[in-house]
Amino acid sequence: MRLLRGYTPASAHQRVLEVGCGTGAFTMQYLDGYAPDRLWLNDLCPEVERCYDGIRPRPDFIAGDAEIVALPGGLTMVVSCSTFQWFNSQERFFKRCVPLLDDGGWLVFTTFGKSNMHEVSSATGQSLPYRSMDELREALQEDYEVLHCSESIETMLFDTPLDALRHLRRTGVTGTGGQAWTRGDLKTFCARYDGGRRTSDGRVTLTYHPIYFVTRKKQEQ
Length: 221
Hints:
Largest sheet: 7 strands, mixed
Mean pLDDT: 92
Number of domains: 2
Distance between the termini: 31 Å
Radius of gyration: 19 Å
């Protein structure tokens, strides 16, 4: 929201598509600050549409995989918070947005980088296909002017690996796969978590690696 306020003009917020709206944590903040003429909300899960029943005017809801589902054109902005890391190809989706955006339209998003939840990956051997900030910037530069890109490493501390896992489950994202775990699975997870490393005070870390981009579609020559 700070980046939107700092970089985007009012004209960017006319016909807006949010990709991966979920239950609306970002959407509600966005609507506190902006009143788009028309707002489309997309999410993979159709059931989350009910989270927006009280919004007036009611947004248009598009259920489905944003990489393949039909999306509207004539957009002044595509915005997304913490979603693109789930895509099979972020690079292809950037290309997909080009014809959907008006000349000078905006693509503004956050995602996560390669260090994200590395402790969990070390315990499970599973990880999303994260891209580095430089890889994302290179993928964007042909079609977009990159006005801002930045990243940070945010580290949380927990008493045990199980406490970190409980925190992740409360977010709705675990990165551990969808299968049921046995007691033995949990024991293995705890033993392998971040290679068994602890901080000097005996706690374990959980790392988030957010990446932020503000871009604008290049004008056709």
